[in-house]
């Protein structure tokens, strides 16, 4: 089923992003690509900006013109089919191969990110040791070479927070549970908590901890989630609709209906207000780190 007017725009947007990148890698202009495919330039623009649904056969034709690999062609053809009437659930290893990361493109295109996490440190803030422990726990039979590769990719993604030009603005609220769950052992946790203190002092990052004492708050019901917002055009209109992402054990949920995003915005604001302020959060991070050092 292709994305229609009532479906999620996320598959279309991500598909357009990948197809645009492939065209650029093939050193083809929009006009040249349109000529090869016998399409109009307007159609090419609609595809690359996620404005229109696509048939998998059209995706295959574009991938052939651009010289894409068989594996990537298969993934993009699957992406063309992945949509449902309400939100979009991307099941890992389903139509789209497991190694094809749909989320990363959204993260790279985002203009800002708000993230509530109740269980583990967000991937963008994980140290190498912490990431290694998390990935090994998630994929029990993973080999060392694959583990090294996955850890490296996770750490490399974090450069969007520290790049010289337009580092990504990030607001993150962490449940106190995240601090006190000993992932990887005491040494790993001391390093991880020290890293959180460091990044919380960067100008583009605001980090707060939701203490146990906060009691009930929206995050208790919602679970972990992220809200991604995208750049605006010259008229002040969003270039892409804000998107809520929630990661699951076997897949990821994407929501971009205005009403859904509004509900998560309200939930994040409630969580944020229930949190300690930035300075008090840093003090708690340092206190918990000392408790790991002391055993």
Automatic annotation (TrEMBL):
InterPro entries: Cro/C1-type_HTH (IPR001387), DUF5753 (IPR043917), Lambda_DNA-bd_dom_sf (IPR010982). Residues 19-72 form the HTH cro/C1-type domain. It comes from the Bacteria. SUPFAM superfamilies: lambda repressor-like DNA-binding domains. This is Helix-turn-helix transcriptional regulator. It comes from Streptomyces litchfieldiae. The lineage of its organism: Bacteria, Bacillati, Actinomycetota, Actinomycetes, Kitasatosporales.
């Amino acid at each position: 089923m292709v994305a229609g007017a009532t479906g999620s725009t996320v598959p279309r947007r991500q598909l357009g992003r990948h197809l645009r990148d492939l065209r650029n890698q093939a050193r083809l202009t929009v006009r040249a690509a349109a000529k090869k495919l016998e399409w109009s330039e307007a159609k090419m623009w609609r595809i690359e900006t996620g404005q229109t649904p696509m048939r998998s056969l059209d995706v295959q034709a574009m991938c052939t013109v651009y010289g894409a690999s068989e594996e990537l062609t298969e993934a993009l053809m699957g992406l063309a089919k992945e949509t449902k009437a309400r939100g979009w659930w991307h099941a890992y290893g389903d139509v789209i191969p497991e190694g094809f990361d749909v989320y990363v493109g959204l993260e790279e295109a985002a203009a800002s990110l708000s993230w509530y996490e109740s269980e583990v440190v967000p991937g963008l803030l994980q140290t190498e040791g912490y990431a290694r422990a998390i990935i090994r726990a998630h994929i029990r039979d993973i080999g060392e070479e694959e583990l090294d590769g996955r850890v490296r990719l996770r750490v490399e993604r974090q450069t969007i927070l520290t790049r010289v030009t337009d580092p990504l603005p990030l607001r993150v609220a962490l449940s106190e549970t995240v601090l006190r769950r000993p992932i990887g052992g005491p040494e790993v946790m001391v390093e991880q908590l020290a890293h959180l203190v460091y990044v919380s002092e960067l100008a583009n990052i605001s980090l707060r901890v939701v203490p146990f004492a906060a009691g009930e708050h929206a995050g208790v019901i919602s679970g972990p989630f992220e809200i991604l917002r995208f750049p605006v055009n010259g008229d002040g209109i969003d270039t892409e609709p804000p998107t809520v992402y929630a990661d699951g054990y076997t897949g990821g949920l994407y929501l971009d209906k205005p009403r859904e995003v509004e509900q998560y915005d309200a939930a994040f604001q409630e969580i944020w207000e229930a949190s300690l302020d930035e300075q008090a959060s840093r003090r708690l991070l340092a206190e918990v780190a000392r408790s790991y050092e002391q055993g």
